[in-house]
Design a protein that fits this description.
By secondary structure, this protein is an alpha/beta fold. The chain has 4 helices and 6 strands. Strand 3 and strand 4 form a beta hairpin. It is globular, with a radius of gyration of 13 Å. Bound molecules: zinc ion (ZN) (2 copies).
């Protein structure tokens, strides 16, 4: 059994957590569109980040570490909220 992190969402109740960069969360607030790069990790959690983070990541060794994570400021949100984000922004599923 893999471990699944849950979040308590004000809108959707208890759901599986998704990890997204803080820029994408801003899109929900300022209404500007940001391309969403996303994958599911081994525990089925969504990991998503914007093109800005992708660019930063690629120019800093293409690896998630303290530095790249500090840039992305990954936040935990509910998966349904992520679906909403995905529906309102251009997306790119990574493999
Ligand atoms: Zn970002
Ligand atoms: Zn939610």
């Amino acid at each position: 059994m893999s471990f699944q992190q849950l979040v308590e969402c004000a809108t959707h109740g208890q759901t599986r957590a998704s990890y997204v960069c803080h820029h994408l969360l801003q899109s929900g607030q300022d209404g500007s569109m940001r391309p969403v790069n996303w994958v599911r990790d081994e525990d089925e959690h969504v990991n998503a980040w914007c093109d800005e983070c992708e660019e930063y990541l690629q120019s800093h060794g293409a690896e998630w570490n303290d530095k790249t994570e500090a840039f992305a400021k990954i936040r935990m949100i509910c998966e349904n909220c992520f679906e909403t984000l995905k529906a309102t922004n251009p997306t790119k599923e990574l493999t």
